[in-house]
Amino acid sequence: MSLDGYVAGPNDDMSFLEHVTGDESIIDRYVEETGAIIAGRRSYDAYAEDPSMKPYGGSWSGRQFVLTHHPEDARPVEGWTVLGGTLAQAVDTALDAARGKAVEIHSANIASQAIDAGLVDEIHVHIAPVILGQGVRFFDRPGPGPQVLLERVGAARPSDEVDLIFTPRR
Ligand SMILES: NC(=O)c1ccc[n+]([C@@H]2O[C@H](COP(=O)([O-])OP(=O)(O)OC[C@H]3O[C@@H](n4cnc5c(N)ncnc54)[C@H](OP(=O)(O)O)[C@@H]3O)[C@@H](O)[C@H]2O)c1
User: Fold this and answer.
1) How many Å lie between the centroid of ligand 1 and the Cα of residue 47?
2) φ, ψ for residue 75 (rounded to 5)?
3) 99 in the Ramachandran plot: left (φ > 0), alpha (ψ -120 to 50) or beta?
4) What pLDDT score was predicted for residue 157?
5) Can you tell me the distance from the alpha carbon of 38 to that of 90, in angstroms, rounded to the nearest whole number?
6) Are 92 and 123 in contact (CB under 8 A)?
């Protein structure tokens, strides 16, 4: 996420991630601890355009799911399963597939809904040293919603205070 709260710039530009520096061992940790990934349809369509794009640069293997209201027109992509049900059903399916490992939601849009639905245990935030000014927000609602209280439960890298882990208060 940029310092001003965007996960992509205008036109879904992700080039700002080049400015992220630091300890690469965090990637190893996510690769090891993650059993399944849920993505949104816009990100999936980008994967369909460029099959060389892989989560964690190709170092991760596991089950990948895309959630869409229109599964019928999703282009098949090797390694991905298209889901057309509800978000709660998608989370159940991904948890089964993850076999005890974590399910990561790689979608700002779906993560926001999952937080509101109480389906998220942890929010990991990695702040890139850049101000984008506009783009796709990390957390966005179409209208007013309840305040979500969080508790900071850790730092992904103990020595680096800008990579933060939160849990929703229940
Ligand atoms: N910085 C990062 O770490 C990071 C990580 C991931 C993605 N991104 C970037 O963020 C941008 C995309 O973000 P986004 O959040 O706007 O799009 P997205 O999550 O990729 O896709 C949103 C789409 O997912 C489907 N969807 C969402 N909720 C659903 C639900 N409850 N049930 C069924 N389908 C549902 C809908 O597709 P349908 O219209 O087909 O129903 C919706 O239009 C891209 O630029 C991507 O590269 C950044």
Assistant:
1) 12
2) -70, 130
3) left
4) 63
5) 8
6) no
Say yes or no: CB of residue 68 within 6 Å of ligand 1: yes
**pLDDT given at position 146:** 84
Averaged in consecutive runs of 10 residues, what is the pLDDT profile of the chain (170 residues)? 94 88 80 97 90 87 97 93 98 98 96 95 90 94 86 73 78
- CB burial of 78-91 (b: ≥16 within 10 Å; e: otherwise) equals eebbbbeeebeebb
DSSP secondary structure letter of residue 76: P
> pTM of the prediction?
0.91
Q: Verify whether ligand 1 is closer than 6 Å to residue 73 (CB atom).
A: no
C-beta of residue 118 within 8 angstroms of C-beta of residue 126: no
1 assigned to some structural domain: no
Count of domains forming the chain: 1
Q: Considering the domain boundaries, does residue 64 fall inside one?
A: yes
Exposed/middle/buried for 145, CB within 10 Å: 0-12, 13-18, 19+?
Answer: exposed
Going by DSSP bridges, is the β-strand pair 6-8/136-137 parallel, antiparallel, or unpaired?
Answer: antiparallel
- The CATH number of the domain where 123 resides is what? 3.40.430.10
Q: The domain containing residue 114 runs over which residues?
A: 6-168
- Ligand 1 contacts CB of residue 121 (under 6 A): no
Single-letter amino acid code for the residue at 28: D
